[in-house]
Amino acid sequence: MFSNQPEELESNFSNPSQRRELWSVWWTSLKLGMTSFGGPIAHLGYFHEVYVTRKKWIDDKSFADLVALCQFLPGPASSQVGIGIGAIRAGIWGAIIAWVGFTLPSVLVLIAFAYMIHTLDTSVFGWLHGLKLVAVAVVAHAVAGMGSKLAAGQLKASIAFGAMASVLLWQTPWIQVAVIGAAGIVGLILFKQEEPVSGLLKSFRIGHKTGILCLALFVILLVALPIARLISGNEWIAIVDSFYRTGSLVFGGGHVVLPLLETEMMLNGWMSKEDFIAGYGATQAVPGPLFTFAAYLGALIHGIPGAVVAVLAVFLPGFLLVIGAMPFWNRFRRNVRLQGVMLGMNAAVVGILFAALYDPIWKSSITSPFEFIIAAGLFVMLMFWKSPPWVVVVVGAAVGQLLL
Hints:
Blueprint: H1 8-14, H2 16-35, H3 40-54, H4 60-72, H5 77-116, H6 127-150, H7 154-169, H8 175-190, H9 208-232, H10 235-249, H11 257-267, H12 273-285, H13 293-333, H14 339-365, H15 369-383, H16 389-403
Helix pairs in contact: 1-2, 2-5, 3-5, 3-6, 4-5, 4-13, 4-14, 5-13, 6-14, 6-15, 6-16, 7-8, 7-14, 8-14, 9-10, 9-13, 10-11, 10-13, 15-16
């Protein structure tokens, strides 16, 4: 399970079956990148629908374990989940391809928006609100599916409820980390008799040496980039440092990156506050991870090269951390003495997802009975008609444009 062979990087291209796996990872993640609207929590709903329910690349419990891990790590949690699933499916190249596929569509759109910022008015587009209603349906579907498996029974449901209440009452960047940690402790106490997990990540192809290398590189860059920036005074190094440091310090989801990036942009005088806010609005309207906001900012600073550098820099810490942690997380989750910890964490993940269904997704989307009816209809399409997520996205956008 924990292969440390260096040839794994080349083998993905030399074996026809592995090339097919990589193509499958690319095409699946690209479609998700083009259709996953609604922000990081909604992305988890899309991922669950595609990777767990439809393709069965990962089971419910492993998916929740991976979500819990990514919630603990700084960085874009939904993108890290996609990276982790790519690694499980096709090794390190699968992780890279899954990230590129999920990220590329919104990067291209936001670069284009950076060049059209003073001529485009998005306020007249009803389809934007339609996509918010799609996010309500997607997250509700994910809560229903994961809750029935991971928060069943009085104890697990109570942990999920406590997590939900805590996240809603204390809305700070660290609350999700604290809630998952507390749920793990509660699970360790309450679920001592649970059976260990066995072999759920059989296709996991990243070994300990790769993990240690990634974790070491994360620390080295975090320390070295500010020093290099100070010594050199080079603006490109300053851009890399600002975006890398921001990506290294974000806990609690993609939205937290916005105030950190605003501080960096304003202090360095790279753009006006008006241009920054306009880009933030555009980022809410495109599919894919919120961290692709960096593409817009980089494009305003130094055109397309600036966008490429900014995107790579802001995503790199999260990529290194999830690849570095996964080999050790996999061993941890198979330990019989610590399975109760995972059960508690999994229930907490359901509660956190349930909280997000209310705030910000429900509160920012459902303001009238008519909007509730539309969202409920989209939920029926997902839950009972088994419609593909992209179909639901198209229907939601069309209904929004026509009726809202």
